[in-house]
Amino acid sequence: MSRPDPNPNKSFEVLQPPTESVSSLSFSPDDKHLVATSWDCQVGCWKILPTGSVVRKATMSHDYPVLCSTWSEDGSTVFSGGCDKQVTMWPLMGGDQPVTVGNHDGPVKEIAWIPQWKLLVTGSWDKTLRYWDINQSNPVHIQQLPERCYALTVGQRLMFVGTADRNLIVFDLRNLQTELKRISSLLMYPTRCVAAFPDERGFLMGSIEGRVRINHLDDSEESKNFTFKCHRDAGKIYSVNSLNFHPVYHTFASAGSDGVINFWDKDNKMRIKAMARCAQPITCSAFNSNGSTFAYAVGYDWSKGAANHNPAKAKTHIFIHKPEESWVKPMPRGATRR
């Protein structure tokens, strides 16, 4: 029996991918580099050439699996965190060696740079957020959370944090030490990913039950809130692993353990496009700064634990795709679903 096509969408395949599942993808601010973190304890950086080809630039290592990464706003530095409980700074463009800039008492699940304050924020399974001035050894502030941090996203004014108890906590970036709002999720199962609306009037929340919740912050817009099924097939339920807003059109992509990437128009409550199903789960995804390029990783998602992981069958891939405008542009009202 022939093996399934690992690249049914004919995307550009990144050479020399990680040997284990990819946990995060992040484009540099100038879109010239792509960083991937993975369960093989590596942080890899690929250079995106003007021709569209991609070459591996450099690699650094953690002692344990790496779960998250982010860039400084000038694109000179990569920050990462993972199961070694450390926060690492990699001056990628300066050629300096990686250094540890912070620590947690549990694995570091999420990381983001806050340019307004020149601070790094990290969210951990130790039930804290920690803010770091990279020139100091101790955190600037430790924010207690009600449960483990499962998802985090930073916008222009607000930060959204999803916790293991299915709460979504909103912080105003001008007052990081005080919760602005706490919202109990209407999804039945744990949060997997969060994405802030581009105008920050609300957020998307994806869960392991194959549903996405669209939620507005202002109570006056409550009628616009809804939940929908998106990664389910023939009665099977798959996790929503990644949610990404298009930076220009403000539609969004959802990627799931069913191996499918869907593009959605939330305002018209429609799916715009479904890419061809991959043979393995989509573990993470990301748009570049102008939305012209979409990166996604394919591999084992660990949903069935280590006992069901077969490295010989679960080869890891990173793909880069140029989505057509019709995939990401909002659909006219009354249009037919695809």
TrEMBL record:
InterPro entries: WD40/YVTN_repeat-like_dom_sf (IPR015943), WD40_PAC1 (IPR020472), WD40_repeat_dom_sf (IPR036322), WD40_rpt (IPR001680). The keyword Protein biosynthesis does not apply. Keywords: Repeat, WD repeat. WD repeats lie at residues 15-48, 59-100, 101-142, 233-274. Pfam families: WD40 (PF00400). This is Protein RAE1-like protein isoform X1. It comes from Cinnamomum micranthum f. kanehirae.
